[in-house]
Amino acid sequence: MPAAVIIGAQWGDEGKGKATDLLAGRIDYVVKFNGGNNAGHTVVIGVEKYALHLLPSGILTPGVTPVISNGVVIDIEVLFEELEALSARGVDVSKLRISANAHVITHYHRTLDKVTERFLGKRQIGTTGRGIGPTYADKINRVGIRMQDLFDENILRQKVEGALDQKNHLLVKVYNRRAITVDEIVSDLLSYADRLRPMVVDTALELHQALERGETVLFEGGQATMLDVDHGTYPFVTSSSATSGGAATGSGIAPNRIDRVIGIVKAYTTRVGAGPFPTELFDEWGEFLRANGHEFGTTTGRPRRCGWYDAPIARYSARINGVTDYVMTKLDVLTGLETIPVCVAYDVDGVRVDEVPVSQSDFHHATPIYEEFPGWSEDISGARTFEDLPKNAQDYVLAIEAMSGARISAIGVGPGRDAIIARHDLLD
Ligand code: GDP
Ligand code: IMO
Ligand code: MG
After folding, report:
1. Whose Cα sits closest to atom 25 in ligand 2?
2. At the topology level of CATH, where does 3-93+202-422 sit?
3. Does the model's pTM come out above 0.70?
4. Residues of CATH 1.10.300.10 domain(s) within the chain?
5. Which atom of ligand 2 is nearest to the CA of 14?
6. Tens digits of per-residue pLDDT, 197-246?
7. Which residue among 45, 47, 227, 329 has the greatest number of ligand 1 atoms within 8 angstroms of its CB, and so is best to mutate?
């Protein structure tokens, strides 16, 4: 059986958590391969609602082995808070495996994230303030702390000393903050070592062995294509590889083991934080989407910026990720609109452009060229087959499918686990 990847096709919050949960019953391992607790996945199971940040959503399914692989950055305090909260609600978290090579978010990373944002002023990115960027910067700069360092106090101390040497200059002289001592960081990290020891393993090897045994592995991407550090709207991105390629480097599983790429796409578009967003709405329709879709961040509670569906972005995501199937979520949110505009191309300084422009300035200038589709007013939350949908809703999905670069294999019609229309098998 295969390895499959779930990725966000837009700017995040497409409903990846729900999609993972949907498949989790058929998989043996679920792997978070990028990002950290900047992610926020809401999963609704019956009357229970779970908000996950650092842990993969698949942890909610009994029997699945959850894995945090090398591409993730881990805030250990958050990790234990989340594990304890889930345990208290009866979720079995005992199987969690964590890569020895995953990097650790420390107090100084969180502090630097917040002060650098403040210093950027008008140019700020609107990060989640969780220390994500500074931790990945240290990784690339080769001054990061990895999970395995927690089990060797000498090495840990040396590495923290090396990292703080530079950072205290920055914190004190540039940002006017107090210096952070090596001892406070080392003793904080060491306090978790015993609890972590049984979970921290060679996850690349374990996943390889699982695939060799014929078990199924699902990679769950955090963030999304347009927030990917290479392929997103740089510099208004996160600092990790949120596209399907990131599943390979972020886990140590070879790309040719992955044969399904499931893109999650909303029936409209949202974005949290700063950066270009061609179809963004500043009028009552933006308010309509925000209110109907409950578009407020799971992680920071910020209102999400809302706009119409952007087909060039979906095509771009299909291409960059090799999307085999799309899951379109939140079609129900569009119910009640008389007509629904869809962005089919952009106007960039008077020229029609059909693809996402490579130049950042062009993308900033891109204004959407819309095609309008007739809406529907019937409640679709109870629809369970494509034919249950009103004709106009069917036509909207088919029109979008034709311009988005991959088949739409499932359609979300509500937040609950069963509020979904399956059209094609996502794993086959
Ligand atoms: P993620 O970060 O991609 O996992 O997405 P989030 O959890 O941040 O945001 C998606 C939100 O949409 C969550 O609150 C889900 O419960 C909700 N959701 C998912 N699919 C649907 C759907 O088809 N319809 C509606 N109305 N809500 C959905
Ligand atoms: P999920 O997995 C939406 C955004 C932040 C900011 C930028 C950089 O729930 O889809 P960071 O803290 O990562 O350095 O912030 O990325 N961002 C997200 N937006 N959903 C997310 O995750 C996000 N994770 C980061 O708002 O603009
Ligand atoms: Mg989210």
Report:
1. 38
2. Adenylosuccinate Synthetase; Chain A, domain 3 (3.90.170)
3. yes
4. 103-196
5. 10
6. 999 999 999 999 999 999 999 999 999 999 999 999 999 999 999 999 99
7. 329
Residues comprising the chain, all counted: 428
For residue 221 and ligand 2, the question of a CB distance below 6 A is answered with no
- For residue 14, report the distance from its CA to the centre of ligand 1, in Å: 6
Q: What is the mean pLDDT of residues 116-129?
A: 92
CA 75 to chain CA mean position, Å: 16
Specify the ligand 2 atom closest to the Cα of 36.
13
Q: How far is Cα of residue 55 from the mean position of the Cα atoms in its chain? A: 12
Residue 15 Cα, ligand 1 centroid: separation in angstroms? 4
What is the Å distance from ligand 2's center to 198 Cα? 30
CATH architecture, domain 103-196? Orthogonal Bundle (1.10)
- Indicate which ligand has the atom closest to the C-alpha of 333: 1
Residue intervals of the chain classified under CATH 3.90.170.10 are 3-93+202-422
Cα separations in angstroms, 281 against 236, 289, 373: 19, 9, 17
The model's pLDDT over 366-408, given as tens digits with 9 standing for 90+, comes to 999 999 999 999 999 999 999 999 999 999 999 999 999 999 9
pLDDT tens digit sequence for 42-60: 999 989 999 999 999 999 9
- Residue 338, exposed/middle/buried by CB under 10 A (0-12, 13-18, 19+)? exposed
